[in-house]
Amino acid sequence: MSVEAKQETLGFQTEVKQLLNLMIHSLYSNKEIFLRELISNASDAADKLRFEALKDDSLYEDDSELKIRVEFDEKQKTITVIDNGVGMSRDEVVEHLGTIAKSGTKQFFESLTGDETKDSQLIGQFGVGFYSCFIVADKVEVTTRRAGLPRAEGVRWSSDGQSDYTIETVDRPKRGTKIVLQLKDDMDEFLNAYRLHGIITKYSDHITLPIMMDKQGEDETGEETVNKATALWTRNKKDISDEEYNEFYKHVGHDFQDPMTHVHTKVEGKLEYTSLLYIPSKAPFDLWDREQRHGVKLYVRRVFIMDDAEQLIPSWLRFVRGIVDSDDLPLNVSREILQHNKVIDSIRSGCTKRVLGLLKDMAEKDVEKYAEFWQVFGKVLKEGVIESSDHKDDLSKLFRFASTHEDGKEDQTVSLEDYVARMQEGQKAIYFVTADSHATAKNSPHLEIFNKKGIEVLLLSDPIDEWVTSHLTEFDGKPLQSVNKGALDLGDIQDEEEKKQEEQKNKDFSKLIERVKKVLDEEVKEVRITSRLTNSPACLVSDENDMGRHLEQILQASGQAIPGSKPILEINPDHPIVKKIDVESDEDLFKDWSHILFDQALLSEGGQLKDPASFVHKLNALIVSLAD
After folding, report:
1. What angle do CA 244, 248, 249 make, to 5 degrees?
2. Topology (CATH) of 400-492
3. E-strand spans in 471-601?
4. How do strand 568-571 and strand 526-529 relate by DSSP bridges?
5. Does the pLDDT of residue 273 top 90, yes or no?
6. Which of these, 24, 178, 262, 453, is most buried using a 10 Å CB contact count?
């Protein structure tokens, strides 16, 4: 947009109008947060200026003493927040104040319920930022100029928070941003120095910039610093309250809710750095967008360097928020340097171990809180065994699964350590079943013999579980074995008599196996007698070295061309349907029975029939023939 465009009126993005309307009503009971949000934005603007000035100190424009100033005017009913940070250009004003350029926006609006209490929590997760000022103001005016631009390229933005805003080019001698709030009639409570002091102390004491206000009193002149203005992470842990930790999290995490927990560490010696890392209580909206990384801020000797320093934390911990402050990195560090830096590698390793240690401690000492964590972030944490073999052992102890031991409940509460402790005498493997839903896994025919013998089976229904079990192949010396794949081997749990009976059945039904195999030759790799079924007539299993059928379905659904492998059909010779087929002399009926046997087995594991109409036709014909 050219500088010559002096003034114009533009409409808010649709999502902005929705957010404004929701926020003003849902967050009214917590309206004081507007000041926290404006001060937080001002602090970020100062951090960005410091970083950009590392390469070009002329951006300071002979004013390197960064600070934030808060003013109020009882007569005019205004509150003003001023910073001398990096400021904004005209294009940046339109981008940041007229639109929501944020991942997760669509998901956010789809998840709104209409319940103000619930929606206020969702709005908090999404981040209210600048727009929170419309909770208390019926008009907002922003005057700004980006550092390095001529004074003639200042910008003034104003709006009543309804449907549009006005933007114009103005002369602004000073860089930075000035925000003037014209308060609503019922917001006089904020036109009070004591009230504003209290808000700043409560929410923004950790801000590293001095937050200035005029001294109060008849004989007082000049201004004073309201906050501590020291980096919270540099203070002794013993001197920091939980409330201060929580408010700092809301600043760095751009969150509205308290975090679940945190870990604050200062490393000294050959390598020196401080880390303050948080686990959020709710999942960010862009949690599944692996390209969005804005969790951990990097500082070098208290100077902000960059947001979303993805090299500081692995992608499978992308939900972590916080800061790392290094004494060993150069101030002019770039993302390219970070990718090949031994200091960063050491910091990344240290931060990863501390987060895993924090989670381990939570899992051992606060089972309920860890269950909450796992429900929110468990699927992301599972990515760790796929991407990082170094942490496989630690991660596997943190994993939780649903299990037949829990009466088929969907809650994932069973650890691998729990499972191993309950293994039967003679049991050599950790058994699991994979399916596309918990209900399908819980009711899988593959579990029948395990249920009969009281052998616990893990119920895996998260799509990522297929990849997890291909990388996590053992735990505590016990192999993880899929009940969907390969020949059933119950080890010493299956006695010699059962093995002999199984061998005999294979001989007795060898002719039936040949007949069914001939009919289903294009559908199956093999047909064999099973010992894993007690109630169902048949089931499908994958060969030991083939890709699992569930994984095939996932990859095909994602559009990947997968050369599908034929399954193995296992039939239960004790089932009435199989006995009926065995003596069926009519070849056409035998073929129909064989196809129905296969299709039923496919349906029972959540598969899709190639020709549902044909299945129904065959089934109806057989029902009629039996009725006759």
Report:
1. 115
2. Rossmann fold (3.40.50)
3. 474-475, 478-482, 526-529, 538-541, 568-571
4. parallel
5. yes
6. 178
Residue 555 dihedral angles phi and psi, to the nearest 5°:
-65, -40
Locus of tokens 């002399």: 585
| CA separation for the pair 137, 133 (Å, rounded) | 6
Q: Give burial (CB, 10 Å; 0-12/13-18/19+) of 2.
A: exposed
**Which range has the worst mean pLDDT, 183-197, 199-213, 393-407, 612-626?**
612-626
Q: How confident is the model at residue 2 (pLDDT cuts 50, 70, 90)?
A: very low
* In 54-184, alpha helices (H): 90-98, 105-111, 116-126
pLDDT in tens, 474-491: 999 999 999 888 777 776
User: Distance between CA 393 and CA 353 in Å, rounded?
Assistant: 12
List pLDDT tens digits, range 512-562. 999 999 999 988 989 998 888 889 999 888 877 666 666 666 655 555 666
Domain with CATH 1.20.120.790 in the chain: 497-627
Looking at residue 287, what DSSP letter applies?
T
- Which range, of 64-73, 77-86, 404-413, averages the lowest pLDDT? 404-413
Mean of pLDDT over the chain: 85
Sign of CA dihedral 534, 537, 541, 544: positive
Q: Are 60 and 167 in contact (CB under 8 A)?
A: no
Rg (Cα) of the chain, in Å, rounded? Answer: 32
Could you say which DSSP state residue 151 is in?
Answer: G
**Intervals of CATH 3.30.230.80 along the chain:** 233-365
Q: Which residue has the tokens 């200035």?
A: 212
Both tokens of 138, joined, read 């019926």
Provide CATH 3.40.50.11260 ranges for the chain: 400-492
Q: Which CATH number applies to 7-230?
A: 3.30.565.10
Rounded to the nearest 5 percent, the helix, strand and coil shares of the chain are 45, 20, 35
Q: List beta partners, residue 482.
A: 432
Contact predicate 12/98, CB 8 Å: yes
**Would you give the end-to-end CA distance of the chain in angstroms?**
82
DSSP 485: B
Instruction: Say yes or no to pLDDT of 101 above 50.
Output: no
Buried b (16+ CB within 10 A) or exposed e, 78-96: bbbbbbbbbbbbbeebbeb
CB atoms inside a 10 Å sphere around CB 338: 21
SS3 414: strand
Contacts of 285 by beta carbon, 8 Å cutoff, 6+ apart = 103, 104, 105, 107, 108, 125, 126
Strand ranges of the sheet holding 526-529, from the earlier edge strand across to the other edge: 526-529, 568-571, 538-541
Say if residue 42's pLDDT is above 70. Answer: yes
**Packing angle of the helix pair 367-387, 342-365 (nearest 10 deg):** 140
**Cα distance between residue 511 and residue 6, in whole Å:** 90
Contact (CB, 8 A) for 430 and 416: yes
Classify domain 233-365 by CATH number. Answer: 3.30.230.80
Distances (CA, A) of 523 to 59, 488, 550, 607: 71, 21, 17, 14
Which helix or strand (DSSP H or E) is residue 557 part of? helix 549-557
CA dist 313 and 521 (Å) reads: 51
- Distance, in Å, from the CA atom of 467 to the CA atom of 232, rounded to the nearest integer, reads 41
- What is the model's pLDDT at position 130? 81
More confident residue, 402 or 116: 402
pLDDT at 7: 82
At residue 1, the pLDDT reads 43
